[in-house]
Write a structure and sequence with these properties.
about 375 residues; 3-stranded antiparallel β-sheet; 14 helices; about 40% helix; globular
């Protein structure tokens, strides 16, 4: 069993972010935590193999409210013997006290949103921390819990190869076992997307983008961090088990504003605005904003889209179980393999490591 818990608050709304997050509203935090606890208490008790508290920035709640939330979670659910419990954090709202609260209640993995070690890129990305705060936050997280991951971004306007290589040294300095390194994307609804639409920003050169993708994979592999997903790298055994559950189409519970659960083919999205979510829970509602019944075609498409993100790929047996026979996609797979874009063998099909830049096009070709 898997559980996702959403805390939508941030110190500032980053211009590239399309997650359900909102800046400030400190006076709402206590009411939100109480509403979130009431929803969590309606969930099955477990045992849960993985829990992921994401955002937003969960550590924006501060040590006291964070402790209140974590104690309520532990008071209701049980954890599997070999559980993974992740909490996201940002350097601008992280300190030893908050990390100590996380560890005290059983969190054993922290994921930090660093994004860059260069001041001008942090300003461009709207981050409220500086490089020294990021270094201190990573060190404090490593002292508090056994597993720490850090996020970085590349493909930024004006970013150089030297800067990307310097950023990646962060993982070496702190001996981190997991890295999430994302290419800048202009997601609809974000400030960056609007600026690109107005001609104020543009995608970086395609050839340079491909060069950076290959550089990131090569440098991290040299540090012992292998790509197990398009943007995620880890030493063997240190992969994010919670995220792997998503990518392998496992069912998962959820709680919180905008949180999405998928259970028995039904996907439910909760009210996105925290105030609306709080009001719904206070009046005894379930805060449902949208319910979708996933069709067999939906599940097949998701299997392709998510499976090809993974280094392990997707097996023919899984696709067959979902209703997509190998006879349909075999000719396409053979043609793509001849082009060096996929590896197709009896175990299934996976994207070639050198074809990460063409992932979207390959996926569309293979989908029904």
């Amino acid at each position: 069993m898997h559980l996702y818990i959403h805390v939508p608050y941030c110190a500032a709304k980053c211009p590239y972010c399309d997650f359900n997050s909102i800046a400030g509203r400190d006076d709402e935090h206590m009411s939100y935590v109480e509403a979130l606890i009431s929803e969590i208490r309606r969930l099955p008790t477990g045992p849960y193999d993985t829990i992921f508290i994401g955002g937003g920035t969960p550590t924006m709640l501060g040590a006291h409210l964070l402790g209140r939330l974590l104690a309520a979670i532990r008071g209701h659910i049980t954890l599997a013997d070999d559980y993974e419990w992740t909490c996201e954090a940002n350097p601008g709202s992280s300190d030893a006290d908050r990390f100590a609260v996380l560890a005290e209640h059983g969190v054993n993995r922290i994921s930090l949103g660093v994004q860059s070690t260069h001041a001008h890129h942090l300003r461009f990305l709207g981050r409220v921390h500086d490089a020294s705060e990021a270094e201190a936050a990573i060190a404090a997280a490593c002292a508090a819990v056994p597993r720490v991951s850090a996020d970085l971004m590349f493909g930024l306007p004006g970013q150089t190869i030297h800067e990307v290589e310097a950023d990646l040294q962060l993982y070496h300095r702190h001996r981190l076992d997991h890295a999430s390194v994302y290419h800048l994307a202009f997601e609809p609804g974000t400030e960056f997307h609007a600026r690109r639409s107005r001609g104020e920003m543009a995608d970086i050169d395609g050839d340079f983008s491909r060069e950076l993708i290959e550089l990131v994979a090569r440098r991290l592999d040299g540090l012992g961090l292998s790509a197990y997903e398009t943007s995620n790298f880890a030493r063997p055994g240190h992969e994010s088990r919670h995220n792997l559950a998503y990518w392998r189409l496992a069912d998962y519970q959820a709680a919180g504003a905008g949180a999405v659960s998928t259970l028995d083919g039904v996907r439910m999205t909760r009210e996105k605005h925290p105030a609306v979510y709080i009001a719904a829970l206070q009046t005894g509602g379930d805060a449902a904003w949208k319910r979708e019944v996933l069709t067999p075609l939906d599940r097949i498409r998701e299997a392709w889209m998510l499976g090809l993100r993974l280094a392990e790929g997707v097996t023919a047996q899984r696709l067959e179980r979902l209703g997509d026979p190998e006879s349909r996609w075999r000719p396409i797979a053979i043609a793509l393999a001849d082009l060096g874009l996929v590896i197709y063998d009896p175990s299934g099909i996976r994207l070639a490591a050198s074809a990460r830049h063409a992932q979207d096009e390959v996926t569309v070709r293979l989908m029904p």
